[in-house]
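Bug report

Summary: structure tokens for Pyridoxal-dependent aspartate 1-decarboxylase differ between web form and batch submission.
Environment: batch mode, default settings.
Steps: 1) Submit the sequence below via batch. 2) Compare with the web form result.

Sequence submitted:
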Amino acid sequence: MTGKKKSAQASVEAMYRVFTVPEAPESTLSRIDQNISRNLAGFLQEHIVAVERDLSDVEKDFSDYAIPEKPIFVSEQAQFLLDKLVANSVHTASPSFIGHMTSALPYFMLPLSKIMIALNQNLVKTETSKAFTPMERQVLGMIHRLVYEQDGAFYRKWMHDPRYALGAMCSGGTVANLTALWVARNNAFPAEGSFRGIHQEGLFRALRYYGCEGAAILVSRRGHYSLRKAADVLGLGRDFLVPVDTDDDNRINTDALREKCLELHRQKIRVMAICGIAGTTETGNVDPLDAMADIAREFGAHFHVDAAWGGPTLFSRTHRHLMRGIEKADSVTFDAHKQLYVPMGAGLVVFRDPGLASAVEHHAQYIIRKGSRDLGSTTLEGSRPGMSMLIQSGLKILAREGYEILIDQGIDKARTFAEMINAETDFELITKPELNILTYRYCPEKVQQALSVADPLQAERLNTSLNRITKFLQKTQRERGKAFVSRTRLEPSRYFSFPCIVFRVVLANPLTTKEILADILKEQRELSADEGIQDEMEILDQMADAVLKLHETGAQQA
């Protein structure tokens, strides 16, 4: 025996085999498949390395830039992925991973995803999707009914009518928002007289024909960055994504919104769309959608609601009132890979009026002919996978009652965690949860007392120090790998709108317990004693003493 490593060979027979012959049961890939199928949580726990590895070090495993000339065996690649990719992935399903909007998935999603991948349907056209096309229309109809609550006759008439679309399936909320605003733009500058419509003649001629100096989209300062992308892609310019001030609860100020609309009207800038947010990314707050709908109607603007996060709250009989006014929206975005618990890469937008999407209809003789049932005629993306299969499976297996439990638990858990934070003298709740997102920070009791009496300059110095501490605690906790909270920057009015770095927590994972939340706070408190941050902690303590002493002296003199 030479011990020489056996190498794979490229040949017609080998190419045929990789398309038709499964891996042997004892192969690396088969063992991985079996382990995942038997115990997904155990597989992830065993193979994902908890301790943070520097990304520049990980990059070394992916530094080859030349496509290999010779093939390797499937098992060799499977082992590479296990050692280099899986091991250095993020354990998003962990119940202590509460920093982002990615959660554990229902177990049935895994085998059903295999069916979807094996079928490899392309939803651009019925010739490459067949039954997936009516299924996608059904899913859009189900979500449409969740939002707009039309009667059965409405859906019998419109859901499968090939000339109309109740919505569009997308790869996520970014494309869903873009699709909604694409529809809004085209409907804001329709064909009229000698003008053939913005879709045909472009934005410059549209503005000239309608006597406008520009077109704007209005949204609160908490709007998702995808809306800026949309303003860019649609040719409006990022400056015409107009931010509107929010109140102390991070909801859009409707008086400021109406005043901004009037200001734009005076400048001959058309208010093309007004966007409400049902679950802001940073704080989980919901805009006053009812009042916004009235303002949109007053100015003839398309009213879009970005409910990528909060939309499934409609399943809850207890909390659906928080979404009041969403049924008045012209379009609504959902992210199925968030609180519908579907694998990454599934979003959608629904339209109140089945005829709205015709404003972006496209046809091609070879694929999406006029009058066909092809869904690609009104979607921005062409080739798309059959993700509707997984959404429909979730809607049927979990059903309204199941989603209601998940939503209610998430909101209750966020409120419980807020109570736990308030009960801790050295932690400060920054934004209380309206849905299931909250923000807080480590802030010693003495510092909280100092901040309560500090003037703007004193508060700025204290908060600058706290920002450095918060950043250190979040980064160190992440690197240790036991738990993860994200961080963001807010401008609390109680601190004179100074930018404060805070911990951000998303409580959507049904496996997260009160005990896990208590452990997260405990670890953060312990990290505050880490030698790496002690100099900053001493500076903060001295500043707090100085502020309190000054205040005490001033009070005695008064």
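Above is the batch result. After comparison, the two runs are identical; trailing whitespace caused the diff. The two ends are 96 Å apart (CA to CA). DSSP finds 20 helices and eleven strands in the chain.
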